[in-house]
Design a protein that fits this description.
two-stranded antiparallel ribbon, globular
Length: 178
């Protein structure tokens, strides 16, 4: 099992599919945000990244989420924040680690992935990165970002069953082969 998780398949097909998911995530993150404030951003970019982790595993999930953030540094004039990059990489890894299974329990896997990614990545690493970047105390910044965490947990749990159905349909049609 350990070998399966940490030695992902590499093929031109997988690389191109991951690249498409990165492109969709980039567009959803940088060009179509729902809320875009200095310390709070709500987007739907987690959807292609959840799909990437679900289809291709934790290594591809981490690579894809990290690359989508790094692309944003070059395409949009943003200052790199390495804590946020680390949060994205860990987030993609967790999506793959939790969701890259044949038989997913819709509610337990969606709740576990949503809560873990929000607690570790969003509340932990991203808030720490913003705190250092803006020179603000961590706890007040964390408190101001709590509504965002709630929104993301609800969105991830609500969208998850549709992503499982999409994954199954893509596999059945032969468009995705892992």
């Amino acid at each position: 099992m350990f070998k399966k998780i940490f030695s992902p398949k590499i093929s031109v097909r997988i690389i191109s599919q991951v690249a498409m998911l990165i492109a969709v995530a980039f567009i959803l993150e940088r060009m179509l945000p729902i809320v875009n404030l200095p310390t709070m951003r709500i987007t739907l970019s987690f959807i292609p990244m959840m799909m990437c982790g679900m289809l291709f595993g934790p290594v591809w999930g981490a690579v894809a989420y990290g690359l989508s953030d790094v692309l944003g540094w070059f395409i949009m004039p943003l200052t790199p924040n390495y804590f946020i990059l680390a949060a994205r990489i860990v987030n993609g890894f967790l999506f793959g680690l939790i969701l890259h299974r044949e038989n997913l329990s819709i509610w337990s896997h969606s709740v576990i992935s949503a809560v873990l990614t929000q607690v570790i990545c969003a509340m932990g690493l991203t808030t720490l990165g913003l705190s250092i970047f803006y020179g603000q105390p961590y706890v007040p910044l964390l408190v101001s970002r709590l509504p965002q965490f709630g929104v993301y947990i609800i969105l991830q749990i609500a969208i998850f069953p549709y992503l499982v159905n999409l994954r199954d349909a893509l596999r059945k049609s032969g468009l995705i082969r892992e």
